[in-house]
Amino acid sequence: MTSAVLQLRERLAGLEDLRVASGLLHWDQQTMMPPTGGPQHAEALGTLEQLSHERFIDAETGRLLHSAAAEVDGAAPESDDACLVRLVRRRWEKATRVPTELAAEMARAGSAGQEAWVAARRDSDFAAFAPYLEHNLELARRYVDCFDDFECPYDALLDDYQPEMKTTDVAALFAALKAELVPLIAKLSQYTMDDSSLHGHFPVESQRKLAQEVVRLMGFDGRGWRMDDTVHPFATSFGSSDVRITTRWDETYLGTGLFGAMHECGHGLYEAGIAPALQRTPLGHGQSLGVHESQSRLWENMVGRGRDFSEVLAPLIATIFGGELANLDPLTLFRAVNRIRPSLIRVEADEATYSLHIILRFELEQELIEGRLAVRDLPEAWNARIEEYLGLTVPDDRRGVLQDVHWSAGLIGYFSTYALGNMIAGQLWWKVRADLPDLSQQISAGRLDGLREWLVENVHRYGSKFTTAELLERAVGGPIETGPFVSYLKGKLSDVYEIPLS
After folding, report:
1. In the predicted structure, residue 206 carries a pLDDT above the cut 60
2. Catalytically annotated residues
């Protein structure tokens, strides 16, 4: 007789196949889909979500979970089967409270909203997008109403992206982080820094060549990876042997495409590094978006904007672009890519101001979900908070409230994971530098395999076997905290600006 664990695995494998089909539609919508394909994609995604949700929450899944739990009782808690049962049971118990019709409608609305956002962002027309956001928020509130065991409404949404973390815990971390960042930004804003090397005319094909060479050094493998253009960069995977990343280009600013590609490649490396035994199961993906973002932020900033990698990056830029950049100095590049200057666009923000963008969105999301902020008033609230936090005036909605894709796709509760990722990246960076004393020399020589292998060993290979807290306990010896990230940032910026920061 086939064991319940094997039967459960077979059932979950089928659900993973439906997830892949849905993921391919999402990828196509953001990269290859013709302009008129949106409505059909939305219907198809709704159908796939309906099929997946019905199959996951039905009584047979519950029966197999119950029997599988009995089979793994007494097994090592860290075994793949025990971790699988524990993870799936938690997700099943949450999913069974959500009506299938609601799950399907959320998928359809997210797809339709994303298409509306592309047009609204292009035209800087928030009024055209507002009805889609209203609908997504209505569905999110209906989703929240399915649960009665969270401390606040936002907890139910946050839990989908950062499982088992509370809004109050995130708020406390953000308050501590903000208290460090605000005076740091104020101090550094008094100084000037030459970043002219990043501004000019950079043909897209030359930028693409640069980005491809950099992600190749990181571990991009053309046999199982691809990189495409999109409106808002993202990464996805359909298993460790099929990883898709994207970026976007700005012919007047070199950082957009390059660091976007490095960021998304960091996500891709996480998915590619998960143990083969976990593939085609719910364990075969990154544990949480906070951990996932730690990987992208680490590669983009701690490596990509680090002084060591400037020794690699500067000669590449000089060779590919030539002209005024033919003699680009690594130190000049290092200082340019780390200039601290408040800016309107989150994905192009420097490391110090970036988390303030996230805190702003985290606060606004809670107000929207709790009904304390109306959608029609969102642009005004956004603009006021940008001025308060960053001292900037928002000229139009395209560079303001419409700049991010997340709310259009129904990804409400996601944003906080970016700043949590910064903190986790700081902790991992501290530990890997302690474990690999020659890491600086490796990176400056363009050898990134040591860092990549350390991350595979300590983070990637586990997939979703452990909670974020458990994973961090194993990797760095404690929970999420702000200290290591702040220390790293101050140390780096002391080097950039040649002033003491403590």
Report:
1. yes
2. 264
